[in-house]
Structures are given as structure tokens and as C-alpha cells.
Amino acid sequence: MDPYAALRFKEFNIFLLVRFAMVFAWSMQFIVIEWQVYSMTKDPLSLGIIGLMEVIPAVSMALFAGHIVDQKEKRNLLVKCIFGFSVISFGLFMLSWPSMEDKLNTTTILYCIYFLVFLGGIVRSFLGPTIFSLIALIVPKKIYPNAATWSSTTWQLASVLGPALAGFSISWIGVHWSMCLIFGFSIMALISLFQISTKPILNPKIGEPVFESLREGLRFVFNTKAVFGALTLDMIAVLFGGAVALLPIFAQDILHVGSEGFGVLRAAPAVGAALTMLGSTRFPLHKNAGKKLLFAVFGFGICMIVFGLSTYFWLSVIALFVSGAVDGVSMIIRQTILQLKTPDNMRGRVASVNSMFVGSSNELGAFESGLTAKLMGTVTAVVFGGAMTLLTVSATAIVSPTFRKLDLQKDIDEHEANE
């Protein structure tokens, strides 16, 4: 297959630009918030609360958001999502104004940050399903795997640069102007999005009762073993492997590397994942996908244990880099499974379930890491999470031989034959 097949569509390139700008802004904003909150509180639990504030609305509204996405036009819905994020980022910019500390006490500022993060969780519950559904309307089905790879690669590249720039910008221009930069990227994404035309609504059941629609979406996910297995495995791994949420503690109190070192640590996993994804455009991962996914998540658990035990900065960077590389394999395989197995009229609902399983488990994992760090210590919490990941993969490999044998080549051949 042509490794640049998806890039030959103009709207897909614009889509990648929009996705890059949004992921860059969102990941950078999360890092700046983490740094600001921990600097204010010096309490690891406060980092967990940030994740919890985002995961509560993201999970509670996910299925409803998927129903709405399947019922509405995707381009305009994405415009509303990005506009909502822009309003939130502007609020954080105003809240971080240096003079604000003279007007509001630390507790009030902290609660306002939590509130804006909560609103961001609502926006995110719609953003993920909308993006997932829009991809399928921009490129032909036969190049879904290639489009999924480029989309995931763009996500990871933005995840590399966003955290890295966040760490450096905190040092160079401070939290306040870092928030201003984030707002600028969200506006750039909003303007670029209008170069993509509106798309047809492919759902034949417009006006379907919401609960009936949600049941249908859930039934599809739980009855499709490849989809359910991939989501469950990744959810458990991310939930217990959420060491990234504790990076401010490692940077400030264990490795003593400051904000610039924090940026390097935060970017290392995304660098590894981005390189994996760029390589996968020439060396696809769809053959023996089940075994590759199991090995990838097992490797992720090993890396978390090494990172937790390390007291050397560059060993920690390498462990995080490798964790990102194997996580990139997991992400590509999962996204390819979802794109190939999901009917067009259910993409919003399936993507919402995906966000509940995987996307929200990042924030729930942040809360779990913050809580366990509070209870058993930071290093022990990370090692515990890595060990739980290894147990999860081992159990999945034993109890699900069908998943071990999963191969996506047949699905790709069928889509090519139908074009």
C-alpha cells in the first residue's frame, strides 16, 4: 500500500493540521496546569484531582455525546468543540494573570482551575467521537488503516511538542503567557477547520430515541470481540500505568531537574510513540495484530517499573521513551480495529465508548496514581501500576486465545474489494 495514500487528499491534510493544533494546545495546557497546581499545593493528590475533574464529565457524558455525534453534521460540531476549548483556555489565561493572586486567594484560584478543567472534560466528551467520525468522511474506506496511522502519528507529534514546549515556556515566559500561547493555537485550529466542507449525515435513524441508540452502540461494542478486547486491555494498562501524572513530583523532588527537565520527561513517551507511528506507515502492523498488541502492552508495564525505580535522569528518559514506542504500537492497532470494524452510522457511539474505556482512563489513571502516591509513596505507586499492567496482559493472553490470533489483513482485503 502507498504509505502516503491518505495525504493525497487535501481535506485530510487540513484535518491533520487541525488535529495537531488541538492536541498540541490541549497537551500543553494540561502540563502547564499540572505544574501550576503542584507548585501551589505541593500535594500529589492535587494532581490526581486534576485528572478526576476531567474524567467525571468525560465518562458521564460520553455515551450521550456519541449519540449526538451520530445525529449531527460532523464539521460544524467540531467547530463548536474547538470554540468551547478556546473559551476555557482564555479563562485559564485570565486566571493565571499575576495580579490575580492579589484579588483571589490560592484556594479560590485552585477551585477555579478545577472548574475549568471540568468544563474541558465536557468538551472532550464530544471532541473525540467527532474527530473519529470525521476521518471516515474525508478518505475512502480502503485507506482507513493508512489514515488512522497518520492521524495517530499527528496526535503523537503534537503530544511530543506540546509537553516539551510547555516545560520550556514555563521557564522562559512563565505560566501566564504559556496559557496565552495555548489560546493562540486553539484559534488557529478553529480558523483552519473552515477549509473543510460540511459532510453528509450517514445515520439512517435520525431522531432515534436516545436510550435505544445508546443500547445499540453498547451492544455492538460488547458483541464485537476484537473491539471489546482491544479497549479492555488498553484501559486496564493505562489505568494502572498512569505514572506520567506524577512527573512533576519526579522532576521536582526525585530527579531534581526543574521545569526544563520536566518538559523532556513529559515529551519522551510521545517521541517514542511518534517514531513508532512514522515507521508503521511503511511497515504496517495489521498482521498478527493480537499478538503485537499483547507484547506492546507487556513492554509498557516493564517500562513503568524501570521508570519508577530509576534515580538517574537519562535512564528515566529512556524508560519513558520506550514506553511511548510500545504504546504507539498499541494505539495504531486499536485505532485500526475501530476504523475497520465500526459501521459508519455508529462511529460516534463507538468512539464514545472508546473514550470511556481508554481516553478517560488516562485521567482516572492520573487520579489512581495521585491517590496511591499519597498512600504508599510515589515510587511504590509507579512500580505497583507497572506490575498490575503485566498481570492484566498475562491474564488476557491466557483467557482469550481468539484475541491472540487476531489478524486484520482479511478486513483490509474486504474493504479494498468493495471500493
TrEMBL record:
<keyword id="KW-0472">Membrane</keyword>
<feature type="transmembrane region" description="Helical">
    <location>
        <begin position="375"/>
        <end position="399"/>
    </location>
</feature>
<dbReference type="Pfam" id="PF05977">
    <property type="entry name" value="MFS_3"/>
</dbReference>
<feature type="transmembrane region" description="Helical">
    <location>
        <begin position="45"/>
        <end position="65"/>
    </location>
</feature>
<feature type="transmembrane region" description="Helical">
    <location>
        <begin position="12"/>
        <end position="33"/>
    </location>
</feature>
<protein>
    <submittedName>
        <fullName>MFS transporter</fullName>
    </submittedName>
</protein>
<feature type="transmembrane region" description="Helical">
    <location>
        <begin position="77"/>
        <end position="96"/>
    </location>
</feature>
<feature type="transmembrane region" description="Helical">
    <location>
        <begin position="263"/>
        <end position="281"/>
    </location>
</feature>
<feature type="transmembrane region" description="Helical">
    <location>
        <begin position="176"/>
        <end position="196"/>
    </location>
</feature>
<feature type="transmembrane region" description="Helical">
    <location>
        <begin position="293"/>
        <end position="315"/>
    </location>
</feature>
<feature type="transmembrane region" description="Helical">
    <location>
        <begin position="108"/>
        <end position="138"/>
    </location>
</feature>
<feature type="transmembrane region" description="Helical">
    <location>
        <begin position="150"/>
        <end position="170"/>
    </location>
</feature>
<dbReference type="InterPro" id="IPR036259">
    <property type="entry name" value="MFS_trans_sf"/>
</dbReference>
<keyword id="KW-0813">Transport</keyword>
<keyword id="KW-1003">Cell membrane</keyword>
<dbReference type="GO" id="GO:0005886">
    <property type="term" value="C:plasma membrane"/>
</dbReference>
<keyword id="KW-0812">Transmembrane</keyword>
<dbReference type="InterPro" id="IPR010290">
    <property type="entry name" value="TM_effector"/>
</dbReference>
<feature type="transmembrane region" description="Helical">
    <location>
        <begin position="226"/>
        <end position="251"/>
    </location>
</feature>
<keyword id="KW-1133">Transmembrane helix</keyword>
